[in-house]
Amino acid sequence: KQEVTQIPAALSVPEGENLVLNCSFTDSAIYNLQWFRQDPGKGLTSLLLIQSSQREQTSGRLNASLDKSSGRSTLYIAASQPGDSATYLCAVRGNYGGSQGNLIFGKGTKLSVKP
Amino acid sequence: DAGITQSPRHKVTETGTPVTLRCHQTENHRYMYWYRQDPGHGLRLIHYSYGVKDTDKGEVSDGYSVSRSKTEDFLLTLESATSSQTSVYFCAISDSTDTQYFGPGTRLTVL
Predict the structure, then answer these.
(1) Which residue of B has its CA nearest to A34?
(2) pLDDT at B95 (0 to 100)
(3) Angstroms from B58 CA to nearest CA on chain A
(4) Nearest to A24 by CA among A46, A6, A47, A8
(5) Would the pLDDT of B88 be above 60?
(6) Looking at the DSSP assignment, which residues form a beta bridge with residue A66?
(7) CA angle B27, B28, B33 (to 5 degrees)
């Protein structure tokens, strides 16, 4: 059964710092991996999706990498801002049909960027 | 933002009563999902739909049923609500790239 782990559970950094969030998964047979952001009391917002054949994806100050063989992904945030404060969730989709191919979520990393 | 709405946004009910949550999309996407989010467990899939009248179970489907009679609407029903079903419920849709878009959530409290 796929398990997704995000460490650390919480992270506090000063404004302007570059930072890396980590995601690990136990089954390397994935179809894709997605990073989401969740603000308090809100739904999830998709940030980046990496297909299993890709190594990385970039959007603005965000860069996500994928190493399928080692079961790891990282989300790099450059020049962090207070507005980046949120919980970041990683989710993987298994490379299986039916219900086994649905998204499995990590529990998230709560990021706080201090002014 | 993807056009997804959920209703109601908040609901308090009593144990044993039936509850129906509604998800409505304006994007005409085929796939729709219901998740619940709980502290310590994260997001877990309840049921999903891959077309009108086509649904399947997710990880935590016991005590829940779903229906999809139109592309735009996906209903989640708790036949007889229990306190363990107190949670925040999210609906999601996915587009042709498999990116998932989430609704604003429904906070359900079962007393």
Answers:
(1) B99
(2) 87
(3) 6
(4) A6
(5) yes
(6) A73
(7) 85
Query: From the CB of residue A53, how many other CB atoms can be counted at a distance below 10 Å?
Result: 9
| CB of A31 less than 8 A from some CB of B | yes
The mean pLDDT of chain A is 93
Place B42 in a pLDDT band, splitting at 50, 70 and 90: confident
Q: Which two tokens stand for residue A13?
A: 């950094």
Give residue B77's identity as a one-letter amino acid code.
Answer: T
Alpha carbon dihedral B24, B9, B105, B111, in 10-degree steps, equals -130
**Distance between CA B67 and CA B88 in Å, rounded?**
19
Nearest to A102 among B45, B99, B101 (CB): B45
d(CA B86, CA A6): 25
Residue B73 CB neighbours (<10 A): 15
Q: Which residues pair with A96 in a beta bridge?
A: none
Output the six-digit token pair for B71: 């592309």
